[in-house]
Amino acid sequence: MSPTKITFIGAGSASFGVNTISTLIRSPILHASHLALVDLNPKNLNLISHLANRLNREWDAQMTISSHSNYLEALDSAGFVIVSIEATPREALWKQDFQIPLKYGVRQPYAENGGPGGFAHAIRNIGPVMEIVRQMERFSPDAWLINYTNPLMRICDAVTRYSSIKVVGLCHQILVGCATIGKVLSKDLGLDVPEGFTSTSATPSSIPIKRFVARQALDSLEITAAGLNHFSWMLSIRNKHTGEDLYPLLLNRWRDFDPTFEPLTRQLFDIFGLFPIAGDEHLSEYLPWVTDPHTKPWQKFNLILYQWDLWEKSRINSYNEIEKLITGHHSIDHLFDAESEGAIEIIEHVLGGGEHPHLAVNIPNKHYISNLPPGAVVEIPANVNHSGVHGVEVGALPEPIAELCRREITITRLCVDAAIHADRHKALQCLLLDPVITDLDIARHILDDYLKAYREYLPQFWK
Questions:
Q1: CA atoms within 13 A on the CB side of 281
Q2: pLDDT at 202 (0 to 100)
Q3: Distance from C-alpha of 37 to C-alpha of 106, rounded to nearest angstrom
Q4: CATH superfamily of 5-88+112-171+315-391
Q5: Do the bridges between strand 377-385 and strand 388-391 make them parallel or antiparallel, or are there none, so unpaired?
Q6: Among candidate residues 91, 24, 90, 93, the one with its CA nearest the CA of residue 59
Q7: How many CB atoms lie within 10 A of CB 356?
Q8: Could you count the other beta carbons within 10 Å of the beta carbon of residue 217?
Q9: Is the pLDDT of residue 16 over 90?
């Protein structure tokens, strides 16, 4: 296979940068390829570029490593473009997404991908992503866009419906579901579950534990899940070695398991008959039963808000660790075993590295889920090979679950249309269809406040 060019926009990402770059550079299939690193933050770009050059040198990958503060310099002839960007300051904006509706008595469960916060988050990020896509159409029209940027479904929908670029969205949240199943079936499967895995809440200290359990679970289990990003449902679970159907066992073990562990997931599993993969925090964003100001269900389900300040400190610590790595005083050996964020499997196998079954991708629905709308961005298992990313047909979701998904698909499309066309009416419709909103006037106030607060990010609404 000939070397390729991979452009990584947002390469300084504290969430995806180091792992993604490590897996790209260690790949023998990508030997001597060109890795173009792009980041608007000069300090982060400098750090990640120095680290990439050290990895390249010490692992003898013979890559061409280039760094760019402007993605226009890096797109020409790219075969793959990875995007992991956020309007900044990330934590401060997310916190404001939560606080603005709170002024009107609307308490969101998480405010990242669904609810009014999901709307605000999306319209800030859709514009910059679509600017990248427009330039891809000019300079690298045949490239694959591999998207990490959230809200993943809304970003991928915008690219799918408003450009000619091939896009696949990747999310590691399904690993949280695998870890949860591993915890519940740990005694049956002989898995080691360390102390500290008490919920799926996204705290920095819990991530290595959940990944450790997920890796073990995937060694023993074959899992098929489908639905929407952060709203995916397990369709089957089998013993990888014997083929035994383990769904009945999971149901029995779950009923006897600690009732304080993922209580919202527990109730939905019991009511709808399928296990929701994403964990309580992300699951809650798409449901109409967790925001009532009188009954306060977020207390009953112990739904924890994103810990904005803690994560901001964690990002700083991540960059401090990179600084130690680039000085040469710390070993880089552990990075050779860095966990993939999914991009390397897509790139290697599209380049011709054989057939790869991917656990979860976000791509337009081509009858993969038969009772969700054609063209809607769905999360499904896929096979990846030289001809592209091919979703696996999984049939129909149970109709009540499909209806919940269809509502979110409509909300997503309205959000994207509003962002692309600067359409305030569709923006209002998007908010009014969201399960978090229950009042017409409050929806108007939230929309007005969001558009004013984020005016610098949304110039299209103020022309």
A1: 16
A2: 82
A3: 40
A4: AglA-like glucosidase (3.90.1820.10)
A5: antiparallel
A6: 24
A7: 15
A8: 26
A9: no
